[in-house]
Structure formats: C-alpha cells, structure tokens
Amino acid sequence: MSSSTADLSSIAQALADAAAALSMRHFRTPLDIITKADESPVTLADRAAETAMREILARRVPADGIYGEEHGPERLEAERVWVLDPIDGTRSFITGSPLWGTLIGVLQGSRVVLGVVDMPVLKERWIGEAGKGATRDGQPVHVSNCTDVAQARIVTTSPDIFAPADWQAFDRLSRQCAMRRFGGDCYGYAQLAGGTIDLVVETGLQPYDYLGPAGLIEAAGGVVTDWQGQPLGLKSDGRVIAAATPELHRQAMAILSA
C-alpha cells in the first residue's frame, strides 16, 4: 500500500468523475428498473457506474479492498478499503429529483480517512480528508456551532425508513428541534458539513450509505456515530447520528435513548 493521501484524493475524484459521466447519461431518461432483494430499486446506470469505479481501482490500487453496493465485497481484509455507492438516492434518481449523489469512503484500518459526497446534477463535490478539513468545490466548509437541540435544524430522508420504535425515538427528538425536514438523501450530510443543517438522524443504512458522509462530516468538524455513540464501521447496525458539535450529539443521543 503506497498511495499518499494526495493520491487517494486524486483517485476519489476520478471515481466520482467516472460515476457522474455514466449516471448523468441516464438521468431523466427511460430506465430499466430492477427490484433488489431488499426491495430497493436499482437501475442499469447504478450498476454500470460502479463497474467503472471498480475498473479504476483495479488499475490504480489493485491490492485495496472494495465494499460496493451493487457488486459486493472484495478483499475486505486489506488494510485500505474503498466503500462505494454510485447512486445514493436511487428513488430520487428514477423520479428525476436532483438530490442523488455518489458516495465514496476510504477506510484505513478502522478509520475513515477520506469521504466524498458528489452531487452530479447540482455540480457540487464535497470532499473531506482526515487532518485536512473539508471542501465544497475546493472551497473550505465547516459545520455550524449549534450546541442545543432546541436551536437545531434536523433532517432525515423519509419517515418510511424507520421501524416503529426508531420512528418514535426520531419523532421525539425532531419535535424538540427548531426545524425538521424530510428528503434529500445524501445531500443532508453535505448540508451538515456546510453548516446549514445541524443534525442528521437515520436508520436502516448500509456502510456504503454512511461511511463516505462520515468522512466528510468528521473532516468538517462534526461528530458521526451510531445511536449508541460508537464509531461507524463496516459492521455498524445502520443507525446514524451526525451532529455539528459534541454537545448537540450528546443531547440528541440522550433523547433518542430516553
């Protein structure tokens, strides 16, 4: 394993470029839609984009592992693993909404060292690198300084993603916030990194849904864990709290577990 952090960023940008080129070719066109085993829709664009990303990784870092949504895991025992979601927000994609994106996370051991949220339709690329901060299209971004749930702006993708008990917990928390919003898929995490959202709370996620955003948010100064406050990894349970500050994170976690 010899790639520097700068090389990782360059590779991640190439992956995002390749995924965007294929995805945008199919966006707002008639699509062949398949229902996967977990009942989420997948398109041919989704699969083709991940194939293109894997081909780049095979050329540039062939010893690295890959955890992708569409084509499964490879070499997860490797010291460095790329976690890929070529089209996060497939339902947004197939309904013509612009709020879908490409997610890329790089795990070094158990730590996320780089995270990308790329929004091809919006032409926004959010990148976070451990120790280097976060950017949107090359400009530095940072989370807000919100420390109080009562002042917080909270977002989640949809009430439909929650099991009944988890929904009760989220509803209890979100009704104590200053504002709650639904929708946006992965864009909510980018908004948090940019300081316009203070909390994202979700459940039922997979590693390719949360590890890229986690790398971005942590680099932007935020806090991301599971609902028990544990660091996120490949074996997390899919419940995520992302918060602008440690104080806000502690409050949110306490309310969720009340």
TrEMBL record:
A GO MF label: histidinol-phosphatase activity
EC number per UniProt: 3.1.3.15
Cross-referenced InterPro entries: His_9_proposed, Inositol_monoP_metal-BS, Inositol_monoP_superfamily, Inositol_monophosphatase-like
First and last residue of the signal peptide: none
Keywords: Amino-acid biosynthesis, Histidine biosynthesis, Hydrolase, Magnesium, Metal-binding
Pathway: Amino-acid biosynthesis; L-histidine biosynthesis; L-histidine from 5-phospho-alpha-D-ribose 1-diphosphate: step 8/9
Residue runs in coiled coils: none
PROSITE patterns (alphabetical): IMP_1 (PS00629)
Entry-linked NCBIfam families: his_9_HisN
Family per similarity comment: Belongs to the inositol monophosphatase superfamily.
Full protein name: Histidinol-phosphatase
Protein source organism: Variovorax paradoxus
